[in-house]
Queue: 4 jobs
Job 1
Amino acid sequence: MLAAIAGLLSALVVFAPPSSAAAAAPITKPPMGWNSWNSFAGTIDHTVIERQADALVTSGMKDAGYEYVNIDDGWWTGSRDGGGNITVDTAKWPGGMSAIADYIHSKGLKAGIYTDAGRNGCGYYYPTGHPAYPGTGAEGHYDQDFLQFSRWGFDYVKVDWCGGSAEGLNARNSYTAISDSIARATAQTGRPMVFSVCEWGGQQPWNWAPSIANLWRTSGDIIY
């Protein structure tokens, strides 16, 4: 059974029409689908994601307009190779992340992935069902990571703020730099990505996100 069918994000979001987010993927309606976090937290692997993609189709949700399957925090242990490129656990993700994106696409769905604007994702700071792996954010690797996501075939990227908040980063500056990285990645691959700013509203993203992103959060997680 499809776990926790709901809107794609875990809090109130604001959706911007495509003309206000030139650096992000052009979209004409609010993106709807399924996200792994509320049901599984960090205990995810290819089997979990494949089964949810299957269920999105067989339940009729895909036909109703729910088209995104978003892999949230927990997909990555924070490891990089000597060149700083993301490496993944192939026991959890046979064929790597491009293979799971291909599987999602084979169902006529779109694939989403997760990172943080800071050095660490939220799984480093909160219980998730796996160890607190350090280095699961994109800080210091923006161009490298967003190009990798695009090359893997992802259509959507959620960029969280746990690391950014812990480090006291300026959200507008960080997310603008990320938007620029996404634009450069798209220029190289030809694959735009929907860009979701997951800053929770503390630094008033409604004042700056419309020019750089497709959607942005205005509050904390609804689970709380």
Job 2
Amino acid sequence: MQFKKRFLLVLLSCAFLAFCYFGGYRLKHKETQTLEEYSEQWVDLNYEKDIESSPYLRRLGGDVLPKNQNCRMETCFDFSKCNSDSFKVYIYPSNPDSEPNPISSLYQKVIDVVKESRYYTDDPSQACLFILAIDTLDRDPLSNNYVRNVPSKIMKLKHWNHGRNHIVFNLFSGTWPDYLEEDLGFDTGQAILAKASMSVNHFRTGFDVSIPLFQKDLTERGGEPGAVISNNFPLRKKYVLAFKGKRYVYGIGSEVRNSLFHLHNGMDMVLVTTCKHGKNWAENKDERCGVDNAMYDR
């Protein structure tokens, strides 16, 4: 009798261990699948939350990134519109169909500079590049300069063609508290985006243009009055870029100033710096300081 009890106890123990082993494995595998499914659901929930918080993403049908995120010059630009002998830029009329387009003083400067340049044409058939007369610089809905109904305005443009060969200027996008970079409130299509504070995640290399964030009181042009002749702007100059200043061999700003020499070619791009800055510059000088100081003094 005791033998039977011991045998039954051993059998039950083996069964219990087998159940724990195989059942635990299945349970663990099930938990792993559940965790993966939960992660996908969590992503979907946040994805839906992002869409709900952005009217722009809703209009795109839920695409987190713009539809033409992969645009490049060879895929989204029509070179047949560009004359090899001359490069021309067309700006749309400011009030198509008698509908006024409010334009900020800052965007008006952008338009004026282009119109006064030798690249401007009032004939769209001769243009390689098209610029909107719709102010898209400030796309913060809470801003006084925010232009409404941009999608409907763009659809009325005769030469829009899904944005191909167009360039869209932007300084601010999104609104508090998210400031979504891609939320311009309209689909830019295949247009080139000239934008300030653009991240590397959205910048399309070789297609988009990164521009500085300039303020509204920035002058349209520099130089003495009368230096700019109508239809001959920008002037043909010997130098494209010039800078002369202190290099900051240590402290705040040193990384930026120390990298300027990469742009210097000694011909049309001249950037010269000196290490002679502060009391301890000699103690922190590097191997380039001798050459840089001599070039700066020259």
Job 3
Amino acid sequence: MAQILAPTMQWQTKITKSSAFAGPLSGKSWSSVVLKQRKSANTRSCRKFRVFAIKAENDVVNRLEGLLNLDVTPYTDKIIAEYIWIGGSGIDLRSKSRTISKPVQHPSELPKWNYDGSSTGQAPGEDSEVILYPQAIFKDPFRGGNNILVLCDAYTPAGEPIPTNKRARAAEIFSHPKVISEIPWYGIEQEYTLLQTNVRWPLGWPVGGYPGPQGPYYCGVGADKSFGRDISDAHYKACLYAGINISGTNGEVMPGQWEYQVGPSVGIEAGDHIWCSRYLLERITEQAGVVLTLDPKPIEGDWNGAGCHTNYSTKSMRDEGGFEVIKKAILNLSLRHQDHISAYGEGNERRLTGKHETANINTFSWGVANRGCSIRVGRDTEKQGKGYLEDRRPASNMDPYIVTSLLAETTLLWEPTLEAEALAAQKLSLKV
């Protein structure tokens, strides 16, 4: 879509009678358009510009924008609900729309729905109906008004969670009385990479070539260091509008890679907010004509991978004496290292190599302020004797329902044998 900047009010587009064209303007013809100022004494207020979109394929002015931005609230109480669910790969997102008779405030006010699971790899063709259960509501930044995004999980007609429904198991763990009493907080750092369409090569990189080595790109500023900032900023505002608890964003170490943070969120909310934030990012990159990937190592070689570092704390960790509780949690995590690794994302072995700010996938480690460890504890946590831990193992394509609930299960519900606990404490130099 070609875009033409034309000033409002004080300026107008004037095409002379001697123009070489008659009818719709072609892309080349715009160079002959002369912008002339209207004769007006009040010219200093010319500050604003409107964007006119020109359809490049047939050079017809695009009039869809007016319809897309229609405010229907004066004419109907009906709203549009976009039902969102996780597809058959466990990482892809699907959605479809339906009309609801009036605005709603809670998922319980929404009807269940169904979809063709045979088309998403989640059901056989002879019994393809999968049922959507609304679980969380967010404001829709694309349609605006009272329209909503509805995050759902999926069940069989008999009411059993389908295999890709990881939310149901997470909800069980987060509803355990011991977990509820500890009020688990999560802060999730979602990294992602933007790719050029068709060539599947990072945004800002020369096609088939490489930019300069890593160093100037992390939190960098400038056309030669920051690629895709508009997408990051648009996503940031869309999340705030939707009601997602986004807390920040920044450019990452590899050029064309970005990160945003969601949290602190309590329990199941952390997974809901990450999944909806991913949906918004997919929609925004779709509109921008850029490909989003959550691959944990999109470019092989001396380039950083993409993770989803998960900051975690319980009430006991945040209270006085919490550092000892954190060390006990680290001990438990060390004993279930392989269980966590197997659930922390596909392709993570390409990222967790012991290089590029990662620990080796086969070795559990922890340290204060050490980004080369499996678990990092911040300097402030050590100094204050309470706080949180950061699990640096999850890949960028991890399922947040799995990671958050597994952290709670391992640190709050799972009990190791005394022998295993003693051996692990000795190995990790932990006194608990």
Job 4
Amino acid sequence: MGVNVVPQPVSVIEREGSSRADALDVSVHGGLPSSASGSAHPEGYTLDVAPDGIRIEAADDAGAFYARQTLAQLTDAEGRVPHVHIDDFPRFAYRGAMLDVARHFFPVAAVKRYLDDIALLKLNHLHLHLTDDQGWRLQLDSWPELTGIGASTQVGGGGGGFYTADDYREIVEYAASRFITIVPEFDMPGHTNAAIAAYPELGDAPAEPYEGIEVGFSSLAIRSERTYEFVADALRELAALTPGPYLHLGGDESLATTDEDFQYFIARATAIGAATGKTLIGWHEMGRSRELPPGTIGQYWSYTTPQEGAAEHTLSFVEQGGRVILSPADAIYLDHKYDESTELGLEWANGPTGIRDSYEWEPADVVPGLAEHDILGIEAPMWTETLSTIDQVETMAFPRLASAAELAWSPRAPRVFAEFEPRLAAFTGYLDRLGVGHA
């Protein structure tokens, strides 16, 4: 039958023969403290399929869940599974996807469907981009018009939408059942037109609800104390709703904010965020500040060859005691066109991003001076300026999300697309059987 699994396991021993999966008993056991076994690593597992049964050993419940994801991929359309022994564990602790629910709003059911999708690939974080110029998507008791006026629009019109606190809790709980941590983002001080439209005192000038896709024109009123009351209230409520360890504060494309004001805002806003007890994440521009709370994580979104300043700003997080999540736009921005014929998507990051482009890069080689241990993980963002349905999201995500998952999970090795291709073909066949859309 062959062993075609994405992401590629650490070790695979193939044996002769196969069995019907539904005819084999499955036993699950706690991990053994052996340095030769995947089950000794956090989120790791061993999977043994033999004629007399299937045995899973896992370090934790997440490892057992991932073993079952591997087993599901191994099982063919006829229900047969090859006899095999697999030792497996992840390269990086943070393996993520991002869904932009601000440009277009996606209801709870759609977010749950995307959680199901990313769980297939052993991804363990979903970053929700909850606010932008086009909409504020999480209800806050302290500032109710954020989801009154601020949630009334989206790109292209047609209304917007928002999550109540109970909606958000439902998403968080559903994610946790799949060993996925929700990472919420309130983007600031730029990308804030929706907030200013709801509360004009948050800006230096009033704003109207916005349905376009241009960026960089909005900014909070940096020197107003009212702004920091808003930041404190918003982050306090967000932290209380979020059991996971992270809050994302954005910080990107603040083109309408002077450098002096940006530095002032980031120092104050991150101090407020850190006071919630959460670990903060910011896009790499936030690394312009040298007053970040220790341990703040930078998210790199420049190219696989860094643009001017991107490497310096990214390394700033490490120099201040933090680590880095890699999201190079020209490799794993999933909203980018596959090629010139792709109907949906954008192409500003060095043109279309083919499947080969999404696979043939090495995380540790992107930012000069960034060591392997400085990398927390990899995240594949899905921006939604051109995407309004979950079917469209799946078509743009798959199969390129599989590339990101393999880079995040599998050991460092030369990435040869010809070797990846047959496993990817098997994976898209698996998606077909599940009814998951792909390009």
